[in-house]
Amino acid sequence: MPGPPASAAIVAPPVAQDLHEDVIEVRGLHKTYGGVPAVRDATFSVRRGEIFGLLGPNGAGKTTTVECLQGLRSADGGSISVLGLDPRRQSGKLRRRIGSQLQQSALPDHIKVWEALDLFSTLMHTGTDWRVLMEQWGLSAVRSRRFHHLSGGQRQRLFVALALVNGPELVFLDEMTTGLDPAARRDAWELIREIRDRGATVVLVTHFMDEAERLCDRLAVVEAGRVVAVASPQELIAAHAGRVRVVFTCTECDLSWLDRVPHVHGVERHGARVEVDGDGPVLAMVAHALVAHGLEPADLHLEEPTLEDAYLHLTGHLIRE
Amino acid sequence: MKMLLRLTWVEIKLLTREPLTLIFTFGLPLLILLVLGGIFRTSDVLDDVLVGRQPIDWYVPAYMGLVTASIGLISLPVHLASYRERGVLRRFRASGVSELSVFGSQLLVSLGIALIGSGLLYLLGALVYGAAPPLDPLRFVLAFIVSVAMFAAIGILLAAVIPTARAVQGLGLILWFVMLFVSGTSSPLQLLPVWLQRVGQALPLYHVVQALERPWNGRGTDLVHLSIVAAVCVGASLLAARLFRWD
Ligand SMILES: Nc1ncnc2c1ncn2[C@@H]1O[C@H](COP(=O)(O)OP(=O)(O)OP(=O)(O)O)[C@@H](O)[C@H]1O
Ligand SMILES: [Mg+2]
Hints:
The complex is a heterodimer. By secondary structure, chain A is α/β, with parallel strands linked by helices. In chain A, the strands form three sheets. Chain A has a six-stranded mixed sheet with strand order 5-6-7-3-8-9, sandwiched between helices. In chain A, helix 8 crosses helix 10. Chain A is elongated. Chain B is an all-alpha fold. In chain B, helix 3 packs antiparallel against helix 5, helix 3 crosses helix 9 and helix 9 crosses helix 10. At the A-B interface, helix 2 and helix 3 of A face helix 1 and helix 4 of B. The site of magnesium ion has 4 residues of chain A, from helix 1. Adenosine-5'-triphosphate binds next to helix 1 of chain A.
């Protein structure tokens, strides 16, 4: 089969238009608290059916942004359209179509897990059966436990389940996996992917690099109230991480020659661990040179750049945990 | 509407899991009835108002007013304000629970608590001092419902304008005690100096007591007092709806 003409690759593929319909459009969003700006001129859009992440350190303005989108706070400037609605003036209409897991909220101390799910499912006409959600989010074992007796992770999972109880087209999850153990996090990621695969759009606030990299289709990197980049994790890595890294261990060997090997840009040693920054065929070059110097490390490998590297490059610092 | 009823049902269940929160609401009026009912048992200051009834028959409905005041000035606003402080109201709002459902469920729960508290008062009054049943129950129930609604509206208003549950509790207690002393609920109003009587008449509990006491003792519906109670109810509701904050 003849390949397409070279120019065709440049033309955008004929994707169905409504697949890329924007469900959220934010332009020049601005919000100050007592004169101190928390969000400055944020502009981005979220497409239907994607998992869109907001990634940034504490106090960057992520919660403020998503709560403005949900009509829970009022913006000081800019325009917001969510599912074609104005979140402030049409909040009732909006609320029926979205699900919200808030970073800060609570339930009455003595309400039981099943009662909370049952209560909030009454508002909805088309909702998922809450019993299914209770099972999926691992809450069946604590269905009759009172809210104030739940562990942090159980509360968190209850809040996510509550956000989904109306079968929303758009879900806001603010620090969804904070407080979850590693296994529960992985389960949560899988469930969120399933929600997307069923056609819902997910807006996910996080400060976890691995979560953003593995779960999000696209990301807004938020820094001191500004959106500094919007792209897929892969694009961010490709654009900002740049180089690759070759790693091996080697005790007490003379590597003074290593930085003269072609395609090597730098060498760092952390005890026995040697990290070689470079580009292109640097792995082959380093391997060849090591063997030529009589060294045969068994663990020689290439480390792909991660979102963390890209983030570091983009903002000049890391998010500390 | 469905949400309103479900929320009310949940609130009732929550109350049964924390029954001690009602100690003050039920306990203090019962205690005061027991003590003051004894002190004024043979007093004749009420004789020209209460023909053929005992002083206790004046105290029983008056203290039912005290129960509604304690719900509206203390338990309801503390409950709502702590909901706001803890982020429960944020959760409700994000789930699309309307103001109407929140307010309505508080009103219905208040009515329930007021009924139980009033029932206990009557029982105690009847058992210890031989209090008589109401002479005009229908008119009494009407006045009772309007009174509970008024104090519930005041309670929601208090929760709306006072930022923390602790502050609400302090203010509510002060208001309650002030009203207790000057509304004819601690001692017959006639025993107070005139200026204190005026203060009492400016406060809502006085009118509630009047509106409840007359039908209880078969003296008809007091339209003036009942209208005042209803007007305060409407005013407080409108203000509360305007000033209410979810967080
Ligand atoms: N209600 C408020 N009143 C005053 N300042 C606020 C309020 N809410 C947020 N801020 C401030 O605005 C800034 C942004 O806060 P925001 O909660 O949006 O950050 P965030 O990115 O969600 O942080 P985190 O990762 O810690 O949740 C912070 O400096 C915060 O102190
Ligand atoms: Mg936040």
